[in-house]
Amino acid sequence: MPSQVKIELVSELKDQMARAKSIVLSDYRGLTVEQMTNLRVKLRGQGAEMRVIKNRLAKLAMKDAGLPVPEDHLTGPSAFVFSMEDPTAGPKVLAQFAKDNVKLSIKCGLFGRSVMNAAAVATLASLPSREELLGRLLGGLKSPVARFAICLKATVNKVAYALKAVADKKQAAA
Questions:
Q1: Could you tell me if 29 and 101 lie in one domain?
Q2: Which of 15, 46, 55, 97 pairs with 87 at a CA distance of 20 to 30 A?
Q3: E-strand spans in 53-128?
Q4: For residue range 91-116, what is the model confidence (pLDDT) as tens digits?
């Protein structure tokens, strides 16, 4: 018989998993408390959150949220990183932290309704953020408009120079 505390925890996890843009599972064995605290601070700064969850409760919450359950990756201690705003935020911080700390390993990830292996999570981490992509898009859209304006201005300038040359010629003839 599950306790009321566990029922509420599963319900809370289900809501958090349903709202998350991406979820990454990692193995944190061997990290010190200080390292874990630093990782959590970095994640919070990027709009992500890390929670250590029992695998059995995580499976229940994933099933309730309608997410695929990566059974083969839910073994041993698992830390879940939820990216609530930018789906690349959590994977980027984890990938960078894993480079600096060999003891942290990425198991798998969930993006949308699909399970990603560790290599796919690393690929997701290498993608630019949403803001960066929007900036590139705006720059790409602005470029043709700016070129058109420059060409239009050059044409108007040429007409003005031609008219001035004709006026100068008539003035010199008179």
A1: yes
A2: 55
A3: 79-83, 105-111, 114-117
A4: 999 988 988 888 888 889 888 888 88
